[in-house]
Amino acid sequence: MKKKLFLLMAGVLLCSSLSGCGEGSIQPDDYVTNEGYESELTGDASIKADPSKAIPVEDIKVGVLYISDPAEGSGYSYTHDLGIQGMQSNLGLSDEQIERKIVDDSDAEATKATIEECIADGCNVIFTTSWGYMETTAEMAEKYPDVYFSHGTGYMSNGTNFNNYFGRIYQARYLSGIVAGMNTKSNKIGYVAAQDTSNSEVTGGIDAFAIGVESVNPNAKIYVVVTNSWYDPEKEEAGAKKLLDMGCDVMTQHCDTPYPLTLAQEYGVYGIGYNSDMKKEVPKACLCSVIWNWSAYYTSAVDAIIGGTWNGENYYGGMNEGLVEITELASFCKEGTQEKVSEASGAILSGKYNVFDGELKTNTGEIIGAEGQTLDDATITGGINWYYQNVILVE
């Protein structure tokens, strides 16, 4: 019997097996929804099970690599850990079946050693959650063909024991751009970005946001500061301050810490959160947040391994799958904001609008795409290396 699982996490799930992750780290208004997870509890019935590849639930042990301590709250690693906790609850795994590690994703040797440690401890499923782990994960998957590896973001996979998972976060970014465009008064919107245009994940999010802004406010500009690091609290704080001092009155981000939002509240302006719902930290500033429901993927992935239906395919979910969304809008959003967001959301969910549609003009005057067409997934995930026309890079 198929089941659609819905999970509200209200402070009852605690971080475990992670150095530095203390009790009470999950805030009362944090949640993971599994709205997008729908499958047989022993695997997807549409895929023929291979009993020789199935791992009994009691023998599953999951290793997870994070770039920062989830206990720091609200950021990228924090949100992934909510998803892991949701998966653990959905599938009935014990605390001893989850092993969490913190390691710098730019340190290949440390990453390799950490994965080796997980395997030595009995982990037969390993999730590596950040872009920089990618090449090392690929190498270790070849070395350990009997271990299942799943890498978040990036693009590498081998179709057998190593896949890639990510989502259409640009859909939710576009909706949040509408919110920003409707609520700026200075027409200066700040964006703290982890990577430059060489990284399509970050740049695609910026461009989708910028397209959303333009759809309701063609006079607004998006000012981008790049930290060149997935996790650098000092640079993220400095970048946010620079943008706020320039007069940006709506702040958003693709970085791990909540500094762009917490500083926005200190400056008395607005912000749009990322990764998890940041209103718990900045209730006076947070217009909404762009969030991930990673439990939808983690549950289905481990469930497939238990049922012997894992087939090595990459995963790329979106709003329709319940993987990405924006939170409820703040009561202080400008009148008419919700109507604009609802209209755009309906168009995306129905397939009538795909964000990167038609001709798109870059900030250097180049034309990307063509009338009547939309950018394909390969281009969105690996070929967006340009800024949209209303984006200004701040050096």
Descriptive keywords:
disordered N terminus, globular, 395 residues, 7-stranded mixed sheet, 6-stranded parallel sheet, 10 helices, single chain
Describe the structure.
This protein has 395 residues and is α/β, with parallel strands linked by helices. The protein has 10 helices and 17 strands. It has helices at 76-91, 108-120, 134-143, 169-183, 200-216, 233-245, 259-267, 295-307, 337-350, 377-382, and strands at residues 3-4, 38-39, 62-66, 98-102, 125-128, 148-152, 162-167, 188-193, 221-226, 250-254, 270-275, 286-292, 315-317, 324-326, 360-361, 367-368, 391-393. Strands 14-12-11-10-8-9-17 form a 7-stranded mixed β-sheet, with helices on both faces. A 6-stranded parallel β-sheet has the order 4-3-5-6-7-13, with helices on both faces. Helix 1 (76-91) packs across helix 8 (295-307), helix 2 crosses helix 3 (134-143) and helix 4 packs antiparallel against helix 9.
Beta-strand percentage range: 15-25%
Percent of residues in helices: 25-40%
- Uncertain runs are 1-43
Rg: 20 Å
Question: Strand-and-helix sequence, N→C?
Answer: EEEHEHEHEEHEHEHEHEEHEEHEEHE
How many DSSP helices? 10
Element layout with pairings:
Elements: E1 3-4, E2 38-39, E3 62-66, H1 76-91, E4 98-102, H2 108-120, E5 125-128, H3 134-143, E6 148-152, E7 162-167, H4 169-183, E8 188-193, H5 200-216, E9 221-226, H6 233-245, E10 250-254, H7 259-267, E11 270-275, E12 286-292, H8 295-307, E13 315-317, E14 324-326, H9 337-350, E15 360-361, E16 367-368, H10 377-382, E17 391-393
Parallel strand pairs: 3-4, 3-5, 5-6, 6-7, 7-13, 8-9, 8-10, 9-17, 10-11, 11-12
Antiparallel strand pairs: 1-2, 12-14, 15-16
Helix pairs in contact: 1-8, 2-3, 4-5, 4-9, 6-7
